[in-house]
Amino acid sequence: MSVLVGEETRVVVQGITGHQGTLHTRGMLAFGTKVVAGVTPGRGGGTVEGVPVFDAVEDAVRVTGANASCIFVPAPFAKDALFEAVDAGVPLAVIITEHIPFHDMLDMLYYARAQGTRIIGPNCPGLASPGKAKVGILPNVIFRPGRVGVVSRSGTLTYEMVNSVSEAGFGQSTCIGLGGDPVNGTTFVDALELFQKDAGTDAIVLVGEIGGVAEEEAAEFIEAKVTKPVVGYIAGRSAPPGKRMGHAGAIITRGRGTAESKVQALTKAGVRMARFPYEIPDRVREAVATLGGR
Amino acid sequence: MVRLEEWRGKEIFRRYGLPLPKGVLVRSREELDRALDAGTVPFPCVVKAQVLAGGRGKGGAVRFAETPAAVREAVGSLLGTAFKGEKVSAVLLEEKLAIARELYLSVTLDRSRRLPLLMASASGGMEVETLPDEAIEKVWVHPMVGLVGYERRKVARTLSLPGPAQADLEKTLDRLWRIFREEDAELVEINPLALVGEHLIALDAKVVVEDDALFRHPEYEGLQGELTALEEKAHEKGIAFVEIGGDIGVIANGAGLTMATLDVLLQEGGKPGVFLDLGGTDDPRKVAEAFLLMTEAHPKVVFVNIFGGVTRCDTVAKGLLEAMAQAPPRFPLVARIRGNNEKEGVAILKEGGVGSYTDLAESVRHVVALEEGRERAPPLSAARSGGAP
Question: Which of A76, A96, A120 delimits the end of a domain?
């Protein structure tokens, strides 16, 4: 088992003819993902890496039965691309594009939610269920199939973590890169809920960063709802404090958002915290040991 | 983020029809003379230095003047000076009003709820974050619906204004919301929003525009400011570069990995000074450019920590050697590269005379030892020329 993507996932790549779109279509295919269609307006009829290209998502879905979109479209056009995917009835949209204005993302998030599409990202590496499917740009070589769920706000740091967990002998059910933008389609809490329900996930690794209060909210959720063991790491304990933004930012966070507050909240929720990236495999080993023989 | 000075914020307010005090902006003594001659300087006058730093009132960057001579004196003492390290290159001259009450209004993004947040308080004019929660009315506004009637009534009750000012408030709320959405603002704040007689007037304006939306707002391009010369150069090349004043230069890829590298360096007693986040790239030239930028920052030792995803290890290795051939560095380099095409990357570096690590903790300890002079490494140029004809 896995969450969000699996054997049944059929991917349409929006922006497939661009450099990144083509490069990562190759990567997804090499992972074993069923990439069934690509979309670039005005370029329909051709193929990229053997994948048929359509002018519109609607056509791609009708002809190929695509049920997940991977969006590489540049930021100024990403909102339109997402609306197109939602209107074509695609239930999962993974937005790799970075630098999308959050005002656009607000429209995208609430429209998608109202129409029943889940967004992962934006500005994220995507997600992968080893041995089954990958939607995004995570490097293929770091994964091995298994029963640890990984969720993270970072990109490269996630690869590092997944790699070290794999090298320590622990495979992953699904690895989700949420992206670090101010407005995200999917949050830690959403991912934790999915992993908690997933019969194929025994333990969860959560990789956070300073800023925002998503990790604190994750901690509250873990305390209330998650019975599976969770391992955590927060990057940026020693980062220089950022400039504060007017008065409003300070009112909202009220002292939350620091590495200290996140580590404290997660520790209180029973999460096994790693102080450094290389401590993660040991924490996972301890977490798995508590499961006893499963 | 692009933080706009008060006068730019007020220009936006004016465009949207928010009521403002009468005033004029001057950038030099000559402009002041012309404004005085033209009679556009209001009296009695508030003289406000145009800087982004807060605490202008307490810090003497806001003065009062009753006469042209006093305005000249106040402007002369502010223009060209520095306030909290920021150069004052413009001064706003506004009419001094008889303020009955000072209120607070703002719209920003609440990242945690993923909703715009409107905040209102009857106690404006001061540091609002010091107010107790109950003194601030909070309304989370649905972005696709906008402010609705009951939300406006809630704000109106909190501010309890006289009749005519209530109608002003309706308009002010609408305009504030429109500015937030249409100008791609991260923050629109009026503090204080003054009750003058029976009407509302925006005495200050704070508008912060989102960087990522600048493609829709070319007029704010170039206002980011506050970058060092090297940071500026990096920005132009699309490389994230931060100087914090230690000895170790760090080149990593991705914000998370960069922060984690910093955490480990500090833990081991190192003093990181410059950070350079390559981001994702598959172009060796970008890596070379980044390395050359790093050279300009004169670090004592450079630590390259790359996990190859989109950025492949061999790309990084090629870029590093290219840069070192161009400008032989005078500092030792420690490289740790893992991930995509790791073997190829390590082999390329080895051929160029650069050893690399796979273990993070071990590589960091070596970096710190070099920084503290406990270990010596031959300068890379020497190592490299050893193998070259």
Answer: A120
Please say if A247 is a catalytic residue. Answer: yes
Most confident range, picked from A251-265, A268-282, B208-222: A268-282
- How many A/B residue pairs have CB atoms within 8 Å? 173
What SS3 class is residue A199?
A: coil
Q: Quick check: is B220 catalytic?
A: no
Using the structure block, give the residue that is written with the tokens 């083509």.
Answer: A22
- Per-residue pLDDT reduced to its tens digit, A51-89: 999 999 999 999 999 999 999 999 999 999 999 999 999
Residue B209: closest C-alpha in chain A: A101
Q: What is the assigned CATH class of domain B101-220?
A: alpha beta
**What is d(CA A152, CA A59) in angstroms, rounded to the nearest whole number?**
33
- Count of domains for chain A: 2
User: B187 in contact with A at a CB cutoff of 8 Å?
Assistant: yes
Distances (CA, A) of B277 to A96, B111, B367: 18, 24, 18
* Residues A141 and A14 occupy one common structural domain: no
Domain B22-95 falls under CATH 3.30.1490.20: yes
User: Is the domain B229-387 a CATH 3.40.50.300 member?
Assistant: no
Report the pLDDT averaged over residues B128-138: 85
Is the CB of residue A286 less than 8 Å from the CB of residue A272?
yes
- ipTM of this predicted complex? 0.90
Q: What would the pLDDT profile of B284-322 be if each residue is shown by its tens digit?
A: 888 888 888 888 888 999 999 999 877 889 989 999 999
CB contact under 8 A, A103 and B184: yes
Q: Which domain holds residue A34?
A: 10-120
Rounded CA-CA distance B118/B135 in Å is 14
Residues of A in contact with B360 (CB under 8 A): 276-278
